[in-house]
TrEMBL record:
Protein name per its UniProtKB record: Radial spoke head 1 homolog
Keywords from the named record: Repeat
Annotated source species: Pieris brassicae
Domain of life: Eukaryota
Annotated spans, Disordered: 196-220
Amino acid sequence: MAEEKGEGPEDVDTIGVYVGGRNIDGERHGEGWAVLPNGDFYQGCYCRGMRSGKGLYVFKNGARYEGEWRKAMKYGVGTMTYPDGSRYEGDWRHDLKQGFGAYYYPNGDIYEGAWFKGKRHGLGTYLFAEYQIKFMGTWVEGVIEGPGQIIYPPVRYHGSWLRGKPKGPGCFVFDTNCMQHGFYLLMKDPALEEFGEGEEEKEDKEVKEERQEEGGEEEVEIDETMGKISVWRARNVTAYMAEFLPPEPVPLPIHDSIPSLSEESIVTDIIQFEIPSVVAEEEGVDDSDSWLMHRQKFLEETEQKG
């Protein structure tokens, strides 16, 4: 995916050009800058030979990361700008997006919410810029899953999703103060059947079932959404009543087996990276769209619900 460009392992070879402080053991320590053997550039803080603290890393492909580091990994709060113009602002752990963050795509789409091990995971919102449609709900390992709602001005749909597709009971809420109740069914996509792909899917499913019966293969989870589309079936229309709405999405539990890195950085005076203020700088400025304000609200709500 385009958003992964520039992430991952940077050049760890200490050979290259380095100008900056060192400790008594000769390790890079303090402020400095370096041109790495692969052409990448880093300016910022080091601790015992590794990038630690605040720093700017510019990749040779044009990507750049500015933010916090621990033991040569992106760790803390930082901003990653990619060659295609997309940008991520938020939390990092072990070189991966994790925590709360906002991702701005080249086409104007915006995702803002929870991340885990580099993927959208947990509560979040996604704005489809071209049509001004917004989805609010939960993701599981990068895919929409569970309760949520999608806003099509002036209509709002409340329901549940399975592997990115609406499925099951739900309701449309209109600005005329009424609700249409019904459910989404997963049905075979006629376009795929026209090209014979429906039969392939059926044969593949039969082969998997035969292997499971013979014991020659471990149980394989079958994707019931594959080759299918969601079709709405309306049942009735009522006046708007909040108690008729489906359950709201809730934060997902996170189980991280990787231990946290202890903070071991140094205080610097020469290199300063200003942290954006959570409060609007000027009186009267609407800063409600600041990802930092949303991050703070997200962390507070997660602690309360946890």
